[in-house]
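thought: fold this chain, then report.
action: predict
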Amino acid sequence: MSADGSVVVGSSGDSAFRWSAAGGMQELAAFVGFSGAKAVSADGSVVVGTAEIASGLFGHAFRWTAAGGVQDLGTLPGYLASFSSAVSADGSTVVGSLGNLGPGQRAFRWTAAGGMQDLGVLPGYLSTTPVAVSADGGVVVGSTTLANGSWHAFLWTAAGGVQDLGKLGGITSSAGAVSADGGIVAGNVRFADGRVHAFRWTAAGGMQDLGCLPNGIQSLAFGISGDGRVVAAGTLQAIGGGVARVFRWTLTGGLQFPGVGVHGVTEDYTWAVSPDGSVVVGDSDSRAFRIQSSILGETYCRPTVENSTGCGGVVLANGDPRLATGALELTATLLPQNSFGFFLTSQAQGNVVSAGGSDGTLCLGGSIGRFVGPGQVMNSGVSGSFTMTVDLNAVPAATPTGVTAVQPGETWNFQCWHRDVNPTATSNFTDAVSITFH
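observation:
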């Protein structure tokens, strides 16, 4: 999608499309055969993809503009087909793959001035497949395949060539996205037991696992914000099937879930995130969706004590910090299935280990309010999560009246307590989130 999230490209059936808020979904061109749009420039004016441009040809990478129409990018000698993967922010650089009938797929980088360039491979590697390019077109990331069939994430620059980014103790890795300056990479690592974890890579710190996920859950990262602070947008899914969700990971908030069941179902797959990290696009049961995230506050009190899922619970706030809207929604997730719990709130932060005999840490201090009114004590069900809408004019507090109205300029902290069996009956706390209202 474009930088502001207002233009989305993709494929519908066998036709490439470009969608805009003003014009809706439009077919790019009447190609001879199949076509699919893969990426769009920052301003939404340049679209790249792959299409059967002429009868009898294998797929060719193309570049499209409203003024110039479709430009066939061709192939290099020895290759029968080409496939576009990504485009630079200004639309001047296209990256993709060159393919033939045998092994040895190669990454290419195309510019109007220089044409197609084969990016090469490392010694002992068979192929390279790019998926993303930095804003200025100078850094390319993707996957490189070894002779034994496994693959590793790679980063390419003109100065350094192809660089293997490693695999974080797993058996394979793949890069899914790169920050605007090319310095931060998001991708996935597959482990021997079938788990897949999203990662964030920097030259200084190497690969970083994006966080604990419950046993049997995998994460797939396909996007990154321009500055790398919203590190990934992807899909969480149980190995072998089950619930799939949109997720984000941020430097301040960790693992987050900006949308679940976009079209009333639970199978959501994310493919891109806007440069500021606020807009996520993907598909839900083969219907394209766009989510404008409204995640609030700063997460604190991490790492949390693991519950019986093998991870610590997460609390997430959605809404608007402006009191005039009165909008606040709290979600607790990564909880044990079918566990009862409720939210807590306070204007003070704290750090009480094993509070009340719990396994976890109470991260609130001072006067603590408990959301235990009608409908406020909830069950996590099979999804391991629950959500509550907060009335900001009636927030529970340790006062004679029992509730109070949030005032402009006040900072409130929220956390969730929940029951658990780990391995015997106990309870635990999620992390906490701090929100300043105005």
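thought: worth noting. The radius of gyration is 24 Å.
final: tokens above.
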